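Section 5.1 Outputs to date
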Amino acid sequence: MQIMPRIYLSAPDISPQDHASVDAVLTSNWVAPIGPALDAFEAAVAARAGRSHAVALHSGTAALHLALQILGIGGGDAVVCPTLTFAASANPICYLGAEPVFVDSESRTWNMDPEKLEAALQSRRDIKAVIVVHLYGQCAEMTRILELCEAYGVPLIEDAAEALGASYHGRPAGSMGAFSFFSFNGNKIITTSGGGMLLGDEAVQIERARYLATQAREPVTHYEHKAIGYNYRMSNLLAGLGNSQLADLDRRVATRRAHFEAYKSALSDLTGVRFMPIADPDGANYWLTCFTLNPAEHPITRDVLLVALENVDIEARPLWKPLHLQPVFKNKACFGGELAADLFERGICLPSGSGMSGDERQRVIDAIRAVFRRGTGNA
């Protein structure tokens, strides 16, 4: 019996060009944190995102932590964050002793609901910043969100961790907040193994982030420190991988879009299946293909389907569990939350990696249809 290889949700897509790029850095012996590959990577990502300045770091979480710190967030402050996101979008708020305030999603993009954001800004005078997340590679409704942040005098941070290569009305994801950041974790659309980048348009602010991320070392010959710093810098070696990955970004977006379109074409006829709405098909990067199941229309539930796929070595996952439902945040305020909770209960993320073949994608499709066929006898 032939054993089929496991299909992962979003496996790293490593090419011969990536090997060559990393090998070139190793050959140069410039593997220390600072070096020419790092400088080139920062410049290239900033250019792609339409930003003036960038600093490469070891994670997107580090980038958000620094952004909040530079904005002066601290004890007694509140920071708005969407509830439908990964915990790393809220954890740095707590690092600084501030309080996260969660906001529900809207149904058009599954991102932060501007109406709920307005309600939060109206009722909470302690809100000092807003974090917006571009979920699954689709930008939030930024026109209204930017208007609200300006009206209330609150800076906006774009969590574009999942959205490199996406855009909103022609503006690149990561170009619209006071700060923005990307993640280059192993499951993202491009990877540096681990990694992230903080971007902005004010040189003084990004240089402050660079200083803090390099142990707050003063520019003298000995080790001098006047502030508490962090070991947050990305290495020149990992930036070498990032440079070759970034050069391949457009192909990766096109491939993930092809996965989304193929899944939607092959599975939309199944009773109760609704794919994630895409407000601007040319603006999303299609990081993950997601759909929801409707238990009122069909008995197949999210967990039944997840188990069935796991049984044939296919990795799929639920949507993000809303943060206001996480035990660690159970006492935090949330404006709305019902839509996010419903999406979590019914939503599934399908394998979507740019290295996944058409045959592997068909295997996922066949496995899903088999579950529905067993359940109804007519799929």
